[in-house]
Design goal:
InterPro entries: YbaB-like_sf, YbaB/EbfC. This is Nucleoid-associated protein Exig_0019. This protein has helices at 2-28, 67-97, and strands spanning 32-37, 42-47, 52-57. It has 106 residues and is of the alpha+beta class. The chain has a domain at 30-87: Ybab, Chain: A (2-Layer Sandwich), CATH 3.30.1310. Strand 1 and strand 2 (42-47) form a beta hairpin.
Length: 106
Amino acid sequence: MRGMGNMNNMMKQMQKMQKDMAKAQEELKDLTVTGTAGGEMVSVVADGHKNIIDVIIKEEVVDPDDVEMIQDLVLAATNDALKKVDELVSSKMGKFTQGMNMPGMF
């Protein structure tokens, strides 16, 4: 029955890891990153769950005759913010899958 002790220990470790992962995911919602474009003329703030929570456009970049430029800057800043969220999630959650060969996981 020696193997049962190892199995119980493994189950406890898995439960702890699951609890730690849930806590880390919960913490992500409180973390924010800021993506920028155009020399910080446009900033987009996102939380760790990829929700865009703020868009800041500096007044001097607003040109009614060039709306397309603002759209491009907002798009670039949003993509920058989402890339930073991916990096944040990877650094926070990657430790849970470290050493496991699980493609597509963090």
